[in-house]
Specification:
Layout (H helix, E strand, L loop, with lengths): L3 E5 L7 H11 L2 E4 L8 E5 L2 E5 L12 E4 L4 E2 L1 H12 L10 E4 L3 E2 L2 H13 L12 H9 L12 H21 L7 H16 L2 E2 L1 H10 L4 E4 L25 H4 L10 E7 L2 E3 L12 H9 L12 E3 L1 E2 H11 L3 E5 L9 E10 L2 E3 L6 H6 L1 E8 L16 H14 L2 E6 L7 E3 L7
This protein binds inosinic acid.
């Protein structure tokens, strides 16, 4: 029996939706363990489009249990809205197939406002966040003043917790010349929705233990990408959670030995949304072409994604940091028309050649990529399902890429359609 973790190996948007959907059809349980409704997956199943932000991908499939772990930050209104939206498409959602950790931390309206205030006043230091309140909510969690799902049980407790957190926020708001946030109205609104939220609330660690005893297959569904990890990413231009695979254990309540296979979703080129270093970024017509052909617009914020060549140095680094066993290479077909294709194989920093991305953001902004150039294949790979049917130059590109990043390829995706995949190794059954 294998439990699989899926993570993005770049800056998010690697095409996790398609792969997670395929794997969730095999899994019994799908667990989100970090992030919040800053993530976005679009799933198309039997012609129906589902846009998921917070709910695990298993939710749209029958007989699967979907779990939101303690590591996720949950906007309770966004949570209920998404349930309503998905239910309106004919999907059954109840406490039987959706579990919310009682220990998950809430994103409240003052978090969203703080995210906006900070972004709007940051000038050059702007992160380019999704403005969903993710960062401020995680700050309150670590600051030990957060409100968790379980705090909705008692009015007295909620009142006390709100007083604590608002004392902190209102001090900052006053300092920034903003109106102070009123407790009573928020408390009233939270108490109104509390029964709807609490009906999904359970100790997730205990449920995972039961699932393991029942030999259920678990898929841990990561959001964002490893380069956005708060410790290992391009700090401070990162999200506020740990996006690495080991976060699946802490963010849900099981040990690292519950994870048997780490699948890294990896795009055949690179994209990034928001600000921050991007050594292989292409601001020319090739970057534009990648964006157009790859439909590189954000699912959550509709922002245009920055595009560039595949950065082998970075992906090799994230593979090691996250313990990735195999990669699912996505969007190979987006490269079909290019005359030549490049992979970054090292950087130059202050005249010296280096083989990793340094931790200091100033250095990250300064590195100059050193490329290896490959001949394009100039023919369609769309829909190819067998490795041997790929054009010779595409085979060469993929094989060299895998060799460089020192990992095996578990699958190659050749179109957004679920079946257009070259499957080399099934993470659940290898
Ligand atoms: P936050 O997560 O909203 O705080 O945003 C922090 C950074 O992470 C910004 O650069 C966002 O664009 C980026 N980010 C957050 N979620 C995603 C995602 O799901 N895909 C890609 N980038 C994301």
């Amino acid at each position: 029996m294998k439990n699989v973790v899926v993570v993005g190996s770049q800056w998010g948007d690697e095409g996790k939706g398609k792969i997670v959907d395929w794997l969730s059809s095999e899994a019994d349980v799908v667990i989100r363990f970090q992030g919040g409704h800053n993530a976005g997956h679009t799933l198309v199943i039997d012609g129906i489009t589902y846009k998921l932000r917070l709910l695990p991908s298993g939710i749209v499939r029958k007989n699967k249990i979907s779990v939101i772990g303690n590591g996720v930050v949950v906007d309770p209104w966004a949570f209920l809205e998404e349930i309503k939206e998905i239910k309106s498409k004919g999907v059954e959602i109840s406490e039987k197939n959706l579990i919310l950790s009682e220990a998950a931390n809430l994103i409240l309206p003052f978090h969203r406002e703080m995210d906006e205030i900070r972004e709007d006043t940051a000038g050059k230091a702007k992160i380019g966040t999704t403005r969903r309140g993710i960062g401020p909510a995680y700050e309150d969690k670590v600051g030990r003043r957060s409100i968790r799902v379980m705090d909705l049980i008692s009015e007295e407790n909620l009142n006390h917790r709100l007083e604590t957190v608002l004392m902190h926020h209102n001090a900052i708001r006053k300092g920034l010349g903003k109106e102070i946030f009123q407790k009573d109205q928020l408390k009233k609104e939270l108490l109104e929705i509390a029964p709807e939220i609490l009906k999904y609330s359970q100790p997730v660690w205990k449920k995972i233990d039961e699932f393991k005893q029942q030999k259920k297959k678990i898929l841990f569904e990561g959001a964002q990408g490893i380069l956005l990890d708060v410790d290992h990413g391009t700090y401070p231009f990162v999200t506020s959670s740990n996006t690495v695979a080991s976060s699946a254990a802490t963010g849900s309540g099981c040990g690292p030995n519950s994870i048997n296979y780490v699948l890294g979703i990896t795009k055949a080129y690179t994209t990034r949304v928001g600000e921050g270093p991007f050594p292989t970024e292409l601001t020319d017509s090739i970057g534009e072409q990648l964006g157009q052909k790859g439909k590189e617009f954000g699912t959550v914020t509709s922002r245009k994604r920055r595009c560039g060549w595949f950065d082998g140095v970075l992906v090799r680094q994230t593979i090691k940091i996250s313990g990735i066993d195999g990669i699912a290479l996505t969007k190979l077909d987006v490269l079909d028309e290019l005359d030549e294709i490049k992979i970054c194989i090292a950087y130059k920093l202050d005249g010296k050649k280096i083989d990793y991305l340094p931790a200091a953001v100033d250095d990250q902004l300064k590195v100059i990529p050193i490329y290896k150039t490959f001949k394009g294949w100039k023919s369609s790979t769309k829909g190819i399902k067998n490795f041997n049917d790929l054009p010779i130059n595409a085979k060469n590109y993929v094989s060299e890429l895998a060799k460089f990043i020192e990992t095996k390829i578990s699958s190659i995706s050749t179109s957004p359609e679920r079946n257009d995949t070259i499957l080399i190794e099934d993470p659940f059954n290898n």
